From TrEMBL:
BZIP domain mapped to chain residues: 26-89
A GO cellular-component term linked to this record: nucleus
UniProt source species: Camelus dromedarius
Keyword annotations from UniProtKB, A to Z: DNA-binding, Nucleus, Transcription, Transcription regulation
GO MF term list: DNA-binding transcription factor activity, RNA polymerase II-specific; RNA polymerase II cis-regulatory region sequence-specific DNA binding
The name this protein goes by in its record: Transcription factor Maf
SMART domains: BRLZ
Record bears the keyword Chloroplast: no
Alphabetical GO biological process terms: lens fiber cell differentiation
Record-linked CDD domains: bZIP_Maf_large
Amino acid sequence: MSSGDHVGARAEPASCAGGQQGGGIRLKQKRRTLKNRGYAQSCRFKRVQQRHVLESEKNQLLQQVDHLKQEISRLVRERDAYKEKYEKLVSSGFRENGSSSDNPSSPEFFM
């Protein structure tokens, strides 16, 4: 007889002695395992749903960033156009210090 046979022979009577209890324990373990599988599946499903929500939110934010970049670009062009207009006025003899605030061509008029 090998040592492996000896251990198997010893383990068998112990499980036979508690036949009813062993079945009850196995049944509880099986129920617990099935519940755990259900919880794991539910968790995986929720994780996938959350991932989709986050990806959708990310895409919306990326679109918003693109829109804001375009808006910044437009405002920079507008600012540069006003700056150029101002510089032309200054170079053509427009005097900033001598202008009155009630003059519509004066920048102070709009402030």
